[in-house]
What does this fold into?
Amino acid sequence: MSQAINGAGGVDGATNGAANARRQLMAIGVLAFLVFLVFPALLDPFRLGMVGKYLTYAFVALGLVLCWGHGGILSLGQGVFFGLGGYCMAMFLKLEASDPISTAIQSTPGIPDFMDWNQLTQLPLFWRPFRSLAFSLLAVPAVPCLLALIIGVAMFKRRVGGVYFAIITQAIAAILSILIIGRQGWTGGVNGITDLKTLHGWDLRTDHARRILYFVNALLLFGAIALGRWVLGTKLGRLLVAMRDKEERVRFSGYDVANVKVFVFVLAAALSAVGGAMFTLQVGFMSPSFVGIVPSIEMVVFAAVGGRESLVGAVYGTLLVNWSKTYFSEKFPQLWLVLMGALFIGVVKVFPRGLAGLYESHGRAWLAAVRERLGRLLSGEGRRITPGPPAPASVERPEP
Amino acid sequence: MGGYSLGELKSILVMQGFNGLSLFCVLLLMALGLAIIFGQMGVINMAHGEFLTIGAYTTYVLSTASARYAPWFHTYYFFFAVAASFAIAAAIGYGVEIFLIRPLYRRPLDTLLATWGLSLIMQQAFRSTFGAKEVSATLPDWLMGSVKPTENIDIPINGMFVMGLTIVLTASIVLLLYRSRWGLSVRATTQNREMAGAVGIDTRKVDRLTFALGCGFAGVAGAAFTTIGSTGPTSGSLYIVDTFLVVVFGGAQSLIGTIASAFTIAQAQSTTEFFLTGSVAKVLTLSAVIIILMLRPQGLMALKVRR
Amino acid sequence: MTTLAITGAAGLAAAVETAHPARKPAEDYLLTVEGLTVSFDGFKVIDDLSLAVEPRELRAVIGPNGAGKTTLLDLISGRTRATSGTILFKGRDITRLREHEIVRAGIGRKFQTPSIYETLTVFENLEMSYPRGRSVFGSLGFRRTPEVIAKVEEAATAIYLADHLRRGAESLSHGQKQWLEIGMLLIQEPELLMLDEPVAGMTSAERRRTAELLTGLSEDRALIVIEHDMEFVKNIAHRVTVLHQGKWLAEGSMDFVQADPKVIEVYLGH
It folds into this structure.
């Protein structure tokens, strides 16, 4: 009894549970195969770097699957956390690249170039701790999580949710991006923090380094998927879905719903932050163009296209949308925005469960049909148009 | 802040106040339109800014058309442009409601995403039709210039015209919603859809007209917008976050709250803008609004509804 | 003169009887509601209501629609905030506590329409209400121990769903969903169970089984039941409180209340 019950929930848990789990593992396996073997083998460094970049966005999508797909909390400001994580990493790298020797030609050596251009004469206070790698690595998740904690507590404890919450996260994204762009001397302004060179002496710009970073990123991503799956498999995971569908009943079962919401929102922020930091490492810069309203809402589409309740789907969705974006905005730039708009509408009206849902409803049936055909082909039956007598037993065989 | 005498400061505040008024008018018209849609229907229209752009481009087209083909009309075209902006925006809004909003009724988060997609498509449509560069409608002569009641104060005439227009429209929406039969059916539908349907109100039609009306207001805001800035494909999107905050800050269901909130936010922004840079002013205003919302989530004037 | 006085006294005594019945000291009661009032925009939905429930009592609350019955439950369970008055539970003032705190104090509340987790199985529905692991980290580390399983099965048996544990909750019949919700409350081990129209939409067979269920439950805990089915109420209730327009109207045994002329006038008909 317990074994059947322990399967992934849903209707008729018994048989579906085991089958569901198997399917999920297969999907993860295929993805791992693609990410760890196929892409590195087939793609040149430039294209591999692009995939690596897309995979960093996937962290944000994973977070959204948890807090939006399962928890019902739509955040239109995840770019804030992606950006903050990225900026923390960028600040460390920039300081390393701005040692007094290489910046000797500046009016004030030893500080980042953009500060020099803005006539700053010393490093602002809040930059100084980022000289330490340990601090920076800690700050990458900690700073965004702290912000998410403040926002979460302020909003969820007062029962602000749904649409209001979404709008406010949008406003926060707008505020942060305006702030970053406005304070050029502190943040590098609209160009962001660029010209990053080494991580603790290790040159980030070589193809070799990029390759290693790609694998590190991929490993972290799969770690995040594993973490997500673990969370969703606990009682908290079921609680998230229950809270999304019947918040009041959850409250009346003795749960402090606000705490649950804060937790999942902070978790999503942490994941996004890791993605941001990995982006900075792989691509070599961070700018406010990832922080504002437009990028944040795009990240929602990545999760939605993959299937907002599917962790693996989120990664596929991110890859697909970003690949399309690169392709179309090169070839048909005018068309791309329209396609993107149509994607938003489609993901809501036509395929709300995204790729994962499409796979469930159509893909499986199609795959089953293909498997059946293959099976028949292999067993020698071939295609039968009308039921006729079996193939004659005495078939001409060549003499051995 | 240094170097100004008290008298000069007062004049500056008054003048900034009047500058803020045009912004206030645009924001108020947008917010009223959104308050009708969101407050009454609970629907989020992320493409609301694009309806402003529709109105602005309509005005631009009429301006250039009349300047080129019918110069005699150019002096009066603005009145016609306002009406046309309303009508076209409302008509398009009507269609959007049927195809996009209605099917997503009861799913506000999904409506949000779908209308965002719509806004992208609309922006690209503007870009393809009118080009990516900004264009300006030329104002007729009588709208140019300003009035000088005192030495230091300079009130632009187009600002006063827009203000007058806004007052007329605000009054009419309040009258419409609270004194007319149709307004009654809108409020009935909002508060109890099933009962409204049961007493014979065509709730779908009410929804469509409400949405169209809200979009029409955004269109008029667009016409007003042409007096304070030039129009580009993304002009509307600059206002969308502000407009939402105005509506939410004012208490989504209260028109008076919306008016008060639009005034406060517009004034706060233009006054701080004088003393600090534009971006910092915006950040401060937005942050203040969010903090206040965190402390009082129901906005300035929430209606006391049975929880 | 003395006859008048005696009649007067008797009349007064009778009046007092149909007014609030004689009160025992507060410690004897599980739940005490004193002078409870809640008004929305000036309209008093509950007006100066007082009542008291004993530890193993099954109290029915009846009254015409709009009498404030559901609002009373809303107030006790913390869903709505009272404008004035106090609610004491086991001697503790719970008037201003939040919903989940009141639940943890030992009060369970069932809603009018079955409020269960449709996407989960019956087992998971019950497990979700298990009174351990209700904090964030508690629910992360929650383990489905044999103790938990036993408790869930026990609750399921009480609500006649022991054979349906693996079914998705959405596939249950309406009556079974009502029972499931009761089960979800039971597993929390409440001392006071509040049920809002538990047999609405049930067949007469299901009503009988529910009556058995509730009567059995009241042996160990107090129940407040809002119902319109007078037969059902008569079957199970120890005492009945009648509300009208937010005010207390009458209270006593079902027979007493059914015979009360005020009650007949406003509710039970002639």
